[in-house]
TrEMBL record, chains A, B:
<dbReference type="InterPro" id="IPR023772">
    <property type="entry name" value="DNA-bd_HTH_TetR-type_CS"/>
</dbReference>
<dbReference type="InterPro" id="IPR041347">
    <property type="entry name" value="MftR_C"/>
</dbReference>
<dbReference type="InterPro" id="IPR001647">
    <property type="entry name" value="HTH_TetR"/>
</dbReference>
<dbReference type="InterPro" id="IPR009057">
    <property type="entry name" value="Homeodomain-like_sf"/>
</dbReference>
<keyword id="KW-0238">DNA-binding</keyword>
<protein>
    <recommendedName>
        <fullName>HTH tetR-type domain-containing protein</fullName>
    </recommendedName>
</protein>
<feature type="domain" description="HTH tetR-type">
    <location>
        <begin position="15"/>
        <end position="75"/>
    </location>
</feature>
<dbReference type="Pfam" id="PF17754">
    <property type="entry name" value="TetR_C_14"/>
</dbReference>
<dbReference type="Pfam" id="PF00440">
    <property type="entry name" value="TetR_N"/>
</dbReference>
<dbReference type="InterPro" id="IPR050109">
    <property type="entry name" value="HTH-type_TetR-like_transc_reg"/>
</dbReference>
<feature type="DNA-binding region" description="H-T-H motif">
    <location>
        <begin position="38"/>
        <end position="57"/>
    </location>
</feature>
Amino acid sequence: MTSSTRRGRSPEGRAEVRRELVAAAARLFTERGYDDTTVDDIAAAAGVGRRTFFRYFRGKEDALSPDHERGLSRIAEVFADAHPDEPLLSLALRAAETVFDLYTVDPEVARQRFALVGTVPALRDREAASVHHYRRLFTRELAARLTGRPDGELRAAVTAAALVAAHNQALHRWLADGARDADLPACVDHFRRVAPMLPLEVDAEPDLAEVTRRLERAALALERRSGSR
Amino acid sequence: MTSSTRRGRSPEGRAEVRRELVAAAARLFTERGYDDTTVDDIAAAAGVGRRTFFRYFRGKEDALSPDHERGLSRIAEVFADAHPDEPLLSLALRAAETVFDLYTVDPEVARQRFALVGTVPALRDREAASVHHYRRLFTRELAARLTGRPDGELRAAVTAAALVAAHNQALHRWLADGARDADLPACVDHFRRVAPMLPLEVDAEPDLAEVTRRLERAALALERRSGSR
DNA sequence: ATCTTAACGGCACTCCGTGCCACAGGGCAA
DNA sequence: TTGCCCTGTGGCACGGAGTGCCGTTAAGAT
């Protein structure tokens, strides 16, 4: 069942090799640690040559979270397939929630990755770059739908950043709490609380500042009232 | 003026060596490209040994933006030195604006770095990680000041993300426009437009949703009024 | 059975980053 | 001055990442 069996590719042989590499990488990373695991180790554990590893992944880091590209595609699909009349807030929330699926299909793997990413600096930076790509995609899609609106680009950037931040906060909380399937609804609910904080529905031109000042005064009054009780 | 002059350190010799390394790195990166410049090249251009380079920088990437740590310290200072009664919105804006100083003290260097970061994937990822650190710091400081408030952590995360996003958007726009000193005030003004989008002053307990609905109604009314003119 | 195709393994190479060590040169004390 | 300590330095060697190249080998087509 080693290399000789697999020489030359079989129809689904590539997918199998890939899975074995991912599994070997995850196992070795958690057992020995990321830095103490070489690419040779991973390849050997998967029963392939070192050179082959680099035909499946761009580098050592990619073996841990190989679904990044697919995640970006999924989000792009959500935006592309959306009905043009769907409110932007609804669309944005839906798009962000699709990312949960990618992270929660296999809670055990998610926990493993979470622990690893939290420990190893190199993986932490990679995660940051990955999140950055998601944020960029959201920003682009939102900006395209806010062209011409007042502060369209700024609101797109802010909304995208807020969405991604809220998503990650909810996800990290869920992961740190044990990544139970039963807690997933609460996790998504927590994420949805970001909705009122998004500068999306406030589309009226006149001036945001005036409305905000009014809001501040109201808040101040409410605070005084609640503070005196 | 080469190595023999500098053997053994002089009082400000270390700072001088560091400057020479940074200058050499920036020059070579822009002339030959990042990937075609080796650490040996940089060290040789600065008149030091390869080994010495790694005593001044953690790696090749650090030679381009060596001020990251200092930037984090500056922001931490702003938060630490702030008057406890300063409104959170004011504090957050002040903290974010201090980052501008770091990027705008030398517009020419900033432009150079901007072009490089936009081109080279490795530097792009590094930049993302760097931004991530800023965002984390903001999140932590804001969360500490929002403990106990409704959705405190979430609002801290969202506000931090929004601030950083708005800052970067304004900065990138300024850089892409030519990084003129004269345009700096406009750049900061653009950034400040993020203020009304921050879920910061809505501190009253009752419920965010109710206030938001009110805000929406007000906005709608304003929109109707301005749309009919 | 033969040909074509494509994935594989191995080799060699460059470069990054680090541990180790010998050395140079300034400061200090006798 | 002489000898010693201390610190920054350069050179060397090593391990590991990632890449180009090429011979090999098995699967599928004819």
